[in-house]
Input
Amino acid sequence: MESKSTFKKKIYLEQCIDYRHDALSKGMIEMGFAFEEIEETIRMVQSEKLDIRTITMGISLRDCSGDNANKIAEKIYDKITKKAENLVKVAEELESEFGIPIVNKRISVTPIAIVADNIEKDEFIKIASSLDKAAKNVGVTFIGGYSALVHKGFTNGDLNLINSIPQVLSETERVCSSVNVATTKAGINMDAVALMGKVIKDTAYRTKENDGIGAAKLVVFCNAPEDNPFMAGAFHGVGEGECVLNVGVSGPGVVLAALSKLPKTADFGQISETIKKTSFKITRAGELIGRLAAQRLNTSFGILDLSLAPTPEIGDSIANILESMGLSKCGSHGTTAALALLNDAVKKGGVMASSYVGGLSGAFIPVSEDAGMIEAVEAGALSIEKLEAMTCVCSVGLDMIAIPGDTPYETISAIIADEMAIGMINKKTTAVRIIPAPGKKEGDHVEFGGLLGHAPVMKVNSFSPKDFIERGGRIPAALHSLNN
Amino acid sequence: MSEQKAIISVIGVDRVGIIYNVSKLLAENNINILDISQTILKDIFTMIMIVDIKNSSNDFSILKEELKNLGENLGVKIDIQKEDIFRAMHRL
Output
């Protein structure tokens, strides 16, 4: 039996709890923040380079199609400049209010081969110029979607667009191009693979004064996502709505700083746990900014791409994260396992932080944009073959790799074919963004500037795959049972 | 009447009058201080203030600029951020 006084105390305590619960739910008492929590967020931004890498507005241009290039160009310009009128302004407001930098503001559009399927081939440049002009007008650095989806075959418009890519990328400033040449369900269009080898080489050659920078704005995909906010591969897929806002978060520096606080003896469970927690926080920041941006721009929030995208700045490197796990250099044996852990933990932490995750979502390994990768290549630790292996376990592919300018087109096509095969078989997105730097040899250096960074020219296997690439046709879609 | 909270952070080398000057600027802008805490670690002064900007007499961007300028005069870095970002990152 409870005594009378104990009973009274219990009632009083219950009343207190009820009162507190009531007050909390009515917002009379608010949970504050611990000093450490506030300090952590500020430190992440100020010294660990946490940022929102990009907010990308996807705009459908399907209602701009027709058979008159001038009219299409005009409609495209009008629609983009109207929809994205306030994109940069809103992004800058949010940056100021929340104190988190939004590095890039960009636009992606419906693959132009679909919009302009019915125009003459020498008129494609008009469409591209219109995209370029619209991007300049609204103040975005890149506009993606000069694209074609040809994984099963080409339409006339697709072929015209692809053949115009070298001219477009050398004569416009902000237009980015991508071509999807393979999917898990369709197989690999080897005619497109062969063609893209030539297109990449020609694009680089036409921008030879700038070390072939045109090729840095061109991505060849397998299983291209329709909602990717990251350039150069962003386009507004055919399953997307009228206008949507996608956000890409970043923060290799934050992950590196969190891992460097762990003792050397921490096991992989602890490493994974630390990455998950950090990824959660980064993603929540992105989710907040994305939702508010969509709200203020009167558009819908699409997806959050929870990627770790490095920048050329020291400390903002994926390679350094892998090295912090105990590898003496990125590219040593063990690198693929370390990257697999990183990529998986980033996704696990991020998925809970956002309701709509999409895009590429994973760790990027662009060589020229990552100081640690550059160092690893220069030290002889990292080769194209190792990078290829790494793309099996991460997003997104062979990215921003400079190779000798005299590499035959068949070799470039064969590099693409290998990467597409990895994507097709493993049901994942893979891509190739490779720059055959005109006039440069292995060991030379190319300079792209800005976020695109600089890169050592890497060694390419010199044995020819010419006869293989010249066969043409389609590699059939792979079997998806009997998995071994 | 609900509050609209923001977090002010001041980071830099400690000196006389930091809190005085920041508080003065806030009072002039009709901003109420809800909470304040500070630490000094190896001569680096970190102060965090939680303030209510609902009745602020200036726009957020102007306030941010004024705080930034004040920081430059005092030789410290001052920033103001709306509270939501901390809520997003640290609360489920």
In short: Chain A touches chain B at residues 27, 30-33, 35, 37-42, 46, 93, 96-100, 281, 284-285, 287-288 (CB under 8 Å). The first strand of chain A starts at residue 52 and ends at 59.
